Amino acid sequence: MTENNATEIALSKARLAKLLVFSVLFLAVGVWMITADPQASNPFFNNPIIKAIGMYGSVVMGVFGIYFFTRKLSDNKPGLVLSDKGITDNTSAFKFGLIPWSDISGVHETYVQASATAKQYFLTIGLVDPEKYISAATNSLKRKLLMINYKSYGSPIHIATNGLKSDHKDLLLLINEYFEKYGIVK
Fold first, then answer.
1. pLDDT score at 4
2. pLDDT tier at 98 (50, 70, 90 boundaries)?
3. 27/25 Cα distance (integer angstroms)
4. Strands 157-160, 119-127: pairing kind
5. Does residue 61 contact residue 69 with C-beta atoms inside 8 Å?
6. Model pLDDT for residues 18-61, shown as the tens digit of each residue
7. CA dist 179 to 27, 99, 134, 161, 174, Å?
8. CA 97 to CA 88: how far, in whole Å?
């Protein structure tokens, strides 16, 4: 939806529902692994430390996923708003509010190899002063996670496109059009 130089990209309820189902499966597999204690013939996967990380990590990821995707399914706000003022991101658990174009140095695509056949795409928002956004986090865990994102991918701010009603490549083009029009040219 475009209105007064603003474009709203809605959250995709179908994609969020699919991610919620995967989160429930993660939780179920984690609980099954804890209760059944399956044995593997591979010594690496039978290592108690590796098994504990897999079991409890699966439960934690499942619980967080269920919490986050349930909240997003009931959220009627747009997932992303692009305007002459900047980007307002409602796709992640990190709430930055409006990110003004004057704080943005560039936007590019980043991906994480989620499995052998699947990639998770993100749009990385390059910042003029990343420390400003990291230090603004009031929660110390959030600050640490933002710092890890910054050190790993060059920015603490990433837009996950898998929960939006938009293809990541089309969204990248659209954001860059806004950036060229409203961003500060140096």
1. 63
2. very high
3. 5
4. antiparallel
5. no
6. 989 999 999 999 999 898 988 888 888 888 898 899 899 999 99
7. 40, 12, 22, 18, 9
8. 6
Stretch 115-127: mean pLDDT, rounded?
84
Average pLDDT on 78-98 reads 89
pTM for this predicted structure: 0.76
Q: Is 121 helix (H, G, I), strand (E, B) or coil?
A: strand
Cβ-defined contacts of 116-123 (< 8 Å, 24+) = 120/160, 120/162, 121/161, 121/162, 121/168, 122/153, 122/158, 122/159, 122/160, 122/161, 122/168, 123/158, 123/159, 123/161, 123/168, 123/171, 123/172, 123/175
Find, among 170, 165, 2, 168, the residue nearest to 79 by Cα.
165
**Can you give the pLDDT at residue 1?**
45
For the chain, domain boundaries: 13-73, 78-182
Three-class secondary structure of residue 110 per DSSP = strand
Integer angstrom CA distances of residue 7 from 4, 83, 92, 105, 147: 8, 6, 18, 20, 30
> Which tokens sit at 110?
């980043």
